[in-house]
Amino acid sequence: MGRLIWHHLSRCISLTASFYAVWAGLWGIFFRKFFWDFLDGILRAPGGLQPSPKVAVFITIIVKLPIIQIVTMVLGFIMIALEYPLPIINGTAVHRNFSLRVVILILQGIVAALFYQLTVMNASDIISALPSRFEAARSSGDLFFFPSEVNKHEEIGVEWEIRLCTALQKKQLASAPAGDAGVALSNQPTDSEASEKPDPFAPPYVPNLHVGDLRDVSTGTEYAILLNKFSVVPHHFLLVTKEYLSQTSPLLPHDLVQTYLLLLAARKASKTYLAFYNCGSNSGASQAHKHIQFIEVEDGPPIERLARATKLEVADKPFSMTSMPYANHVYRLPTLSNDASHEQIEQAVFLPFLSLLDLVISTVRHAQDYPSGTPSYNVILTLEHMYLIPRRWESYTLGESGVTLSVNSLGFAGMLMVKSEPERQALKQEKIGKVLRGVGLESVHELQVAGTSMEAMDEIGG
C-alpha cells in the first residue's frame, strides 16, 4: 500500500512538473531571455546588463531562436504522454521503463532552467490587484499610510490642492541647505552617491510591496510594480525598471507605452490615475533608480482643468498655459481606445514627448546662471495631456518662516504637500505661483514660437 501511495505521488509530481514545463516553454517563446546572462556579464550605463560573449550560443538558441523552449515543451509533452498515459503506449515496454522517465525528467529540468520563466501580468491585472495588495501591505506593516486632509486654494485661475499631513513630521527627512532667492539645493543623491547606498528598488522585493511585473513586448524591457512604502494617498504605486537606470535619463518609448497602458487600464476599471516622473537632481526625485509614479485622482489634477480650457490655434502642436508664471510645455494627446495597440500608443505619446523635451532644453538654454549638469524637469501624464516643466531648483524656502518646501511633479500638477498648519499658511502667504516660479524657469514661450515661425518662413522662402 505504501509503495502504491509513493508511486501515485511521484506520478502526480511528474505530471505537474511536465505541465509547468510546457506552459513555461510557451511563455518563453514570447518572452525570450537567457536566465544566466548575468554570469560574467557587463553592466553598462546606459544599456544595462550586457551578456558575456561566452554565452553567445545560449543567446542564439534561446533569444534569437527559441530552440530550448521548444525542446522543453517537447520533453514535457513526452512525460505527460508517459504518465497519463496515451492509449497507444499504455502497457508497452516504453511505458513501463522507469529509467527512461528519470532521464527525460533530468533533461527537462536542465533545459527549463536555462531560460527565464517570468510570471508576467498585464496592466489591467495590476490595476485590479492594487486595492487588495495595498491593504495586505498596510496590515502587515510593510507599508506605512499617513492620513492627511486636503484644502482648496484659489489662485491664478487654478483651484490648488494643499494637502496637510502632520504625520510626516515624524518621518525623518534630511533638510536641504538654503540657497539664494528663496530656493534650496537638491536632496536627491547623485549617481556616485547612490551607488554607495542600498537601492530600495533593486530585487529581491518586499513581497507585500511587489504587486507584479510588466514586460514590454516590443523591447523585452522588464518592470516591477511596487507600492509606495510611505503612502499619503491610497494605492500610490511605482513603475520601476528592473535593471538599474538613472533617474536623470529621459523616458524612452517603452517607458511611455507602459505608463499609458496603465492609465488606460485604470480608465477601463472606471478609475482615473495620474502618472508623473521627476527627472534630474533638481526635479524633486528622492531616489536615483528610474521610476515613474502613479496616484489616483478623481477628475484629473487641478492643472488639467486649465489645460482643457486652453483653446488651441493649431492642433497637434505643443502649447503653453500662459497664465502660469513659470515655463510650462503641454501637448494635447489624441483620444485612444482602451484596446489601443503598442504601436498606436507609441506613436501617440513618444513624438509629443520629444517635442516637449526640445522645448525644455530650449528654455534651459535661455536661462542665465542655470545650474551645471543635466537639466532637470518634471513630466506629468494623463490620458488627455502631457506636461513637461523645466526646473532650476528642487526646493523653496518660504519667506520669514524659513520652512523648506520640496516641490516635485505633483506641485506643478496642482497638488502641494505641507507638514504643518503654519507651513500651509506660509505657503498661502508666499503665493503658490511665486513658489513654483522660484523652483522653475521663466517662460520664453513667445521667443520659442517666434523662432519656430521664423524657421518655417525660412524653409518656405528657401
UniProtKB/TrEMBL annotation:
InterPro entries given for it? Answer: Ap4A_phos1/2, Ap4A_phos1/2-like, Ap4A_phos1/2_N, ATP_adenylylTrfase_C, DUF7727, HIT-like_sf
Q: Which GO terms describe its molecular function?
A: ATP binding; ATP:ADP adenylyltransferase activity
Q: Which UniProt keyword terms apply here?
A: Membrane, Transmembrane, Transmembrane helix
| Domain ATP adenylyltransferase C-terminal per the UniProt entry, residue ranges | 323-441
Q: Where are the transmembrane segments?
A: 12-35, 55-86, 98-118
- Give GO terms for biological process: nucleotide metabolic process
**Sorted alphabetically, which Pfam families does this protein's record hold?**
Ap4A_phos_N, ATP_transf, DUF7727
Name all DUF7727 domain ranges.
1-120
Domain named Ap4A phosphorylase 1/2 N-terminal: residues: 122-297
Segments carrying the region annotation (Disordered) are: 179-202
Please name the PANTHER family in this protein's record.
AP-4-A PHOSPHORYLASE II, PUTATIVE (AFU_ORTHOLOGUE AFUA_5G14690)-RELATED
The protein depicted here goes by the name Uncharacterized protein
- In its UniProt entry, the species of origin is given as Rhizopogon vinicolor AM-OR11-026
